[in-house]
Amino acid sequence: MRANFPVRLGPAEETLISQLKAAGAEQAAERIAVAGLPTRRVESYHYTDLKTLLRTIPALGQPANEASAPALRVPGAFTLMIANGVIQNASTAPAGVIVGEAGGGVLSTRDDVIVNVSNALAQKALTLTLESSVDPVVQVERRIEGEAAHVADALKIFVADGASTTIVETFSGSDAAHVGNHATYMALGKNAVVTHITVDLSTRAVSHFATNEYHLADGAKLRTLVIHAGAGLARTNVFPRLEGAGAHADLTGLNLVAEGQHADITMETTHAVPNTSSQPLFKSIARGRSKSVVQGKLIVARDAQKTDAKFMHQGLMLSDEAEILSKPELEIYADDVVCGHGSTCGKLDEDSLFYLLSRGVPKPEAETMMVRGFIAELLDEVEDEALNEALQTVVDSWLLGA
Q1: pLDDT of residue 223
Q2: Shortest CA distance to 271 belongs to which of 283, 262, 279?
Q3: DSSP state letters, 169-205
Q4: Does the reported pTM lie above 0.90?
Q5: DSSP secondary structure code for residue 32 in this structure
Q6: How far apart are the C-alpha atoms of 140 and 155, rounded to whole Å?
Q7: With contact defined as beta carbons under 8 Å apart, do 135 and 167 qualify?
Q8: Positive or negative CA dihedral for 380, 386, 392, 394?
Q9: What is the structure's pLDDT at 386?
Q10: Is the pLDDT of residue 186 over 70?
Q11: Which of 238, 235, 184, 183 is nearest to 207 (CA)?
């Protein structure tokens, strides 16, 4: 097939192949040489055509000598800073937290270009082992510094049986046209309770890619929140596997996009055993000529009877030029399950807006109130007060157009 229909490679693909070969990842390089970056013909990239959107890739990043301050300040948090893939500094670890390093990528093998490149190029992984419950929020700031750079970094987290914690990851850096490929692997022990939040605060010139992979043991409870509020091109993969009876996942996300931005949250949740449940809820707010994509697939294995899973995506369009695209999918092999999906999209409710205006609320303030109300059910679930306030500032900055 290759001989008959050779793929014409662009500058981004040529650079990527060269970088993968230099890293010794011949197989990953060959896959791109044969197929190129995914186009809209690839189902999982139908709305995020990387061959079109990713025209160039900068040189691989060099270790940074220092890093700027975190883009998101969470008072009282235990903070780790990673710049260009290298741990820069860390505050004193709280009791029960062990910080270490491991070699290589962290994600499971999967037919996904972002995953394959991440596994091939990540040189070291930061490891966090939580042996018991941790009170302060654990914050990992991942930055790309200096001139335009391609950086792949990795984080691996183990949460012990019965432990609970809140972990927030933030992505930021200099104003250059970076390409970031960030991987996070998390294993939740039996009855562990974890809130995991990722916030992209990169600049508009950045292409941000992230993959979050979760494995849940018996009775584990996971709450996730992905927020895209920075990069010009962003895609976060969310791949949870519920592998223990009684495991539950509340999977949420928010695309905040404005003029020229493209943000994509792609979720694939696997219910692998009986008696598990998940509640994926994602929201998009788009203004200007921007595009928000949310894809959500629920996979129920043949033996995963009594699965309860419902996917929902809600969109709010603030301009006629914006696009909000949704693709819910169900792949069910068991017969005794309760599964469903839904998707809605619309503009601000005219009746509610009229009511606020009739009460003397200026129109800009009234619209802001309604947008905050639309988002509220995502942020209200963040119990840590300082973290909740920090996330509110992200939304406020976007509303102000900053």
Answers
A1: 98
A2: 279
A3: EEEEE-SS--EEEEEEEEEE-TT-EEEEEEEE---TT
A4: yes
A5: H
A6: 9
A7: no
A8: negative
A9: 96
A10: yes
A11: 235
